[in-house]
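User: Once you have settled down, look closely at the record that follows, taking as long as you need, and be ready to discuss the fold:
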Amino acid sequence: MNFTKIACVADDSPKAQAALKELKKHYDIVELTKRRVGAEVIVVLGGDGFMLETLHNYMKMKLPFYGINCGSVGFLMNAPGIDTLSERINRARGSTLYPLSMYARRTNGKISQALAFNEVSLLRQGRQAAKIKVSVDHVVRIPELVCDGLLVSTPAGSTAYNFSAGGPVIPLGANVLALTPLVPFRPRRWRGALLHHDSSVNLTIMEYNKRPVNAVADFTEFQDVAEVVISEQRKLGVTLLFDAEHNLEERIIKEQFSY
């Protein structure tokens, strides 16, 4: 890789704004618009949440993203450091992330759609547990799942909410998705499933007037859903660049041995 035209976006935090100021001292930053204007790579200054927002905002530009952690966890980011940024970017390894599409039919008949690079989750709204019929590739696998919710996770998102909910950590190249229940009550022993990446997951909300459910794709939330269809979109992949010695594949593997 040999990137010479760098564009940059930064969140509003003091740490990210200071990094942006320092970056401009060392490099000629290309203005970033929806028309690219010659940019070859997008440097993202912020945390994981801001990186997800940036991926959503600029994925159609088909540019690689290189994140510098100015937040807390920084799982999708690289370590801070501006002085050798050009060399780091050009030595970086790329990892491709494929988003999930969420097609949601609301209880009022409205159709809503969104993308998720981490996970799509269904969450109960009120005090009563949700009841969800789970179908995979048009085959009903669980007629009635009684739970607080349910999520479908990508490999990149498997170390986040999915892992906290007891789901498996998935290597990037595994070509599978995680289907993980949130506090399942019935079936009592069901703890989730691994699905091939091209599976279509259909989640039907039962008794939705009595047991309302929200659907969330990364940071986009829709209330009062009646049915949600989730599938991976391989045509919409984005490339994240990581320092070779601390690439995303290695981070995901290390998560499985953390204690």
